[in-house]
Design goal:
Length: 157
């Protein structure tokens, strides 16, 4: 599938592909597990959508809720946070903090009238390249079905 940016008037920078809309997904990935899992997926030549924009963070607990809101308000169609499996965090309890924080962010999204369904938290270890590819494909498909981020349209039109 090839994709190219369509720079027509009023498109707000949407990426279009042969099949229509191709979402942009900001993925905040833990350096020790999820980012390494994504790297494994790439080096193993596993297929996953190009819509994932990986952002390496030291730990999923270091993802400030403001980052998620800002990514969404800046035009991301979806936001993925990936971390170590509970109990396997490089920083011992970081992913537990991330899980609590993520639950609060979902509530904040709902209270702001944003679509909390466009947020996803996944536990992906360094050895789970196939799981990263699967999560990326499933989440991209779900966001593609939801369509472009309505907040981006209202902010940039």
């Amino acid at each position: 599938m090839t994709s190219a940016r369509n720079h027509g008037a009023g498109d707000a920078g949407e990426i279009r592909s042969e099949g229509g809309f191709s979402p942009r997904i900001a993925a905040f990935l833990c350096k020790w597990c999820s980012y390494t899992g994504a790297d494994l997926a790439g080096t193993s030549r596993l297929q996953y959508p190009v819509s994932i924009i990986p952002i390496q963070v030291m730990c999923s607990s270091r993802v400030d809720p403001v980052f998620l809101i800002q990514a969404f308000l800046s035009g991301a169609d979806g936001v993925l946070v990936g971390g170590c499996h509970p109990g396997d965090c490089h920083y011992e309890t970081g992913n537990y903090h991330a899980r609590r924080r993520f639950a609060i962010v979902r509530e904040v999204f709902d209270s702001m009238g944003l679509e909390s369904a466009r947020l996803r938290l996944s536990w992906i270890s360094a050895s789970e390249g196939p799981k990263f590819a699967q999560v990326a494909a499933e989440y991209t498909s779900r966001i593609r079905e939801a369509g472009p981020n309505p907040t981006r349209r209202s902010l940039f039109l």
